[in-house]
Amino acid sequence: MCKINRICIASILAALPGLVSAQSGTNSPYSQYGFGELTEQSTGFNRGMNGVGIGYREHNQVNFLNPASYSAVDSMTFIFDVGVAGQLTNFEENGRRLNANNANIEYISALFRAARHFGVGFGLMPYTNVGYNYSTSSKISSSESGSTVYTNTYSGSGGLHQAYLGLGWEPFKGLSIGVNASYLWGSIERTVINSYSDAYINTLSKYYSADVRNYKLDFGLQYSARLSKSDRVTLGATYSLGHKLNSDPECKVVSRNSQTSVSDTTLYTVDNAFEIPSVYGAGLMWNHKNKIRIGVDYTLQKWADISFPMYDSDGGSPKYTLRSGMFKDRHKVNAGVEFVVDEDSRTYLKKIRYRLGAGYATPYQVINGIDGPKEYSVSAGLGIPIINKYNNRSILNISAQWVCRDSKSLIKENSFRINLGLTFNERWFAKWKVQ
Fold first, then answer.
1. What φ, ψ does residue 87 adopt, rounded to 5°?
2. Phi-psi domain of 261 (left: phi exceeds 0; alpha: psi -120 through 50; beta: other)
3. How many CA atoms lie within 13 A of 371 on its CB side?
4. Is the dihedral of CA 81, 422, 85, 366 positive or negative?
5. pTM of the complete model
6. For the chain, which terminus, N or C, has the lower number of CB atoms within 10 Å?
7. 261-274 pLDDT, tens digit each
8. How far apart are CA 92 and CA 102, in angstroms?
């Protein structure tokens, strides 16, 4: 037992630096808008069902999507879960294709029972990712000596992360409430470098930077009712508090002449510009004999009410100010199923869990007056028991997911993701009898 405990602790210490510094979870050019690409707020077992979890209530998994589920954790149990992911993305625009690869640590989470019907969870989870690098070129004038070509190079990195502490309590039989209190932090860097084939033309480059240090609150509710001896239904609801982040993003504009090496720099700042939206979620999970679980989730993110700072040099003097109309409310629907022949069987193959899921999400970004990409996704996964002389309750969660992000007038993305989640489930708090 001590050996397994040391493995868990060593895994936490080894994974922490990677998660904190991991900023390359995407290569998507869509991550240059707003806070970047919104990440999956789920763990390994959820992802096999395409992220379903608001109504999911089980004793042997950490379900970050609804903190009310923490109250279902087994007594004398400590659950530790760490996940990694890799993806291959194909970008397509006007008949041109490009591939990109990513791999990173996705999350770290843990859960234990502090008292009767009272669970405590904690961990690290990404919130957004920013990562892109591309350029565009065009001719702007013609003369006897040829045309002048200008090039804009766009790059960005960073993202937001959350370290959370969660509580789940079941005050009445079947009814549970919970909360995740998170420390939200991170930095986002974006640049637009301008250059010309004619060295006598001044270049104009923009450097955007922002730093976030604030809080995030997510509330959860679950009501579980037994319909019959074989069937149980759990209804779930979640709410995330929207609020200002007390962050002052900056935009540095540099005008430079490469012939004279003379440059002029102007710094713009917008006070308290960043804000996260209110998020509402509802979910339903049907459990039949602990063999079949079918769930559906709906989530509404109120992005339409959020403004975002933008640099604008058209129609007068340049300015860096808040602009509305850059986001839309995001609607997301996920459905998933999990099947196991007999989770208590002595036959190994009967204990494997099989998962399938599908989802659809509307865009939350508005790009140059055009709606951003819609998202379609499907997933499949396995929950493979880990059985040895030290432990027989841990699970290796493996899933594959295909995600298509498509907009008629913009870049189309097809991503294939592999998610690996290792869930250690140990009886840390058991009282051992010495003979």
1. -145, 150
2. left
3. 15
4. negative
5. 0.88
6. C
7. 667 889 999 999 99
8. 17
